[in-house]
Write a structure and sequence with these properties.
This protein is an all-alpha fold. Helix content is 83%, strand content 0%. α1 runs parallel beside α4.
Length: 279
């Protein structure tokens, strides 16, 4: 049953976000086609004379770049809007009568919706990366850098750093930190919606202030942990021990974000189980 609810939510969200994804990819590939047909890669850096078509492409690209960033901004806003409205409508709105009569407990409902939104945030990130790669002519920049010896030195040094066995745990910890951070943001929205639905009126205002209050509280606590970490690692800073500093810092960040997620999850769970009031 939980998979059916996940599939239904997933498809409903997709209907709203996929048109934005399609628009960003179309704009990116139109720009890529223009760059390819204009033949910028055949121009020499020292003596670059543009044809009339190349001038047109350059001018038209400004419009495409502006349109692309508008679409990406729209994806970001729509993702947040959908998280709020989808959670509200499916739990506290008309759909809530069906959702809350399913043979699922409160934790399963919340977990299903959390994973659903995480999946769409991940998809948004992948689509954005593909769109940026297609939009921006990185190969033209590489053509300039490929003759620069400093660029080769940078690549060699970067390879040495990344091949260090100490780097891999840092990357894993960073990815975990990002994952739990995203979970915390979604659960903060869930909790704000849940708090707003404790009241009969002014739900939007209450939800906004709830979100601001929760975010401010977590930021203050995070700042405290950052200060505590800096004070307890002063000797490592003085000795230039980079990896111990980064490793300890990442562990603290991951544990903090995980703790915040657990607290927020159980807060949402408590309100859903004990204070549920359908419209």
């Amino acid at each position: 049953m939980i998979l059916k609810m996940f599939k239904y939510d997933f498809m409903d969200i997709g209907k709203k976000l996929i048109p934005f994804y399609a628009a960003s990819l179309i704009v990116s590939f139109i720009n890529r086609i223009l760059i390819t047909t204009a033949g910028f890669d055949s121009l020499s850096i020292e003596n670059a004379e543009f044809s009339s078509y190349q001038h047109f492409v350059i001018q038209f690209q400004f419009l495409l770049y502006f349109l692309f960033f508008v679409i990406i901004f729209g994806i970001t806003i729509m993702t947040v809007f959908i998280i709020i409205t989808r959670y509200h409508n499916s739990v506290y709105g008309n759909e809530g009568y069906l959702t809350n009569t399913l043979p699922l407990n409160s934790a399963q409902i919340i977990f299903s919706k959390l994973i659903n939104f995480l999946a769409w945030i991940f998809i948004s990130g992948i689509v954005t990366m593909i769109s940026v790669v297609a939009l921006v002519p990185f190969e033209l920049f590489l053509k300039i850098l490929i003759n620069d010896t400093e660029f080769y030195n940078f690549i060699i040094n970067a390879g040495k750093v990344l091949s260090d066995p100490k780097v891999f745990p840092l990357i894993i910890m960073y990815l975990l930190s990002v994952f739990f951070s995203q979970c915390g943001k979604i659960l903060t929205l869930f909790l704000s919606v849940s708090i707003a639905n404790l009241f009969k009126g002014n739900k939007i205002v209450i939800g906004i202030f709830s979100y601001m209050g929760i975010s401010f509280l977590t930021s203050v606590i995070s700042s405290f942990f950052t200060f505590f970490f800096v004070m307890t690692n002063q000797n490592n800073f003085k000795d230039g021990l980079l990896f111990p500093i980064l490793n300890n810092g990442n562990i603290i960040i991951v544990l903090f974000n995980l703790t915040v997620c657990v607290i927020l999850f159980f807060a949402v769970y408590f309100l859903h189980k004990n204070k549920l009031d359908l419209e």
